[in-house]
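hey can u run this one w/ citrulline bound, need the structure tokens asap thx
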Amino acid sequence: MFKQAIVRKPSRSISEGLTGASLGTPNYDNAVVQHQAYVSTLNALGLSVTQLPALNELADATFVEDVALLVDDVAVLTRPGAASREPEVAFMKDTINQLFSEVHTIVAPGTLEAGDIMRVERKLYVGLSARTNEAGVAQLSAIFAPYGVEVISVEMAEMLHLKTGVNYLSNNQMLVCGEFVNHPAFSQYECFEIPIGEEYAANSLWINGTVIVPSGFDKTAKLVEQLGYPVVRVDTSEFRKIDGGLSCLSLRF
Ligand code: CIR
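ok here u go:
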């Protein structure tokens, strides 16, 4: 169960965020409103949310999920593969040091963005994306070996991050799309394929039994409801324009 979350307010330069999408550029004011609704939803689901101030010069800094990994009492500060995102880590350090007594850091030549990490109980699946390399995964394995947390690398070729296309719910159930449909890494799980055209909603977010689904993806919302999870919808359309989804916007622990 999650008790807390860390978020960072959107940057004024959000329209300059890295993107592979062609949906236009995000509008800052709308992003702020959507971000507030996201925080309210986390609050409503029982989380106490630490809101960090915007880093206006760092366009992607609202996607805090990528710069740290929090697993029980252990925190890891990452080393983003995207050079423009590397400076975000230093701004997360103090907050993590205040909240966690054991803090590790990924160092060169390792790269790791935690959008590539999906936790399933005592396993961490890590996508070998364009942002995360084998040296980063090896460092993560060494950090978690003493805790009996297994680190499993996942081959991938197409998506930005692992969790762009696969997300764990609970009870052995996962949402999958694209290259993660029938992916051998997940054969032991009950995998539910996201309806065609709704791939963005693969990044739905399980919070303490409820699943947050992005607004406008009704087939996915229905699928998740049919699996027995209460669904809450949150609009992330501004963040989608720069490849951001629900999980990217917070660190949960
Ligand atoms: C980036 O390309 O790094 C950002 N524009 C989007 C990051 C999304 N983060 C995530 O999926 N965890």
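The CA atoms of residues 79 and 108 lie 8 Å apart. anyway lmk if its weird
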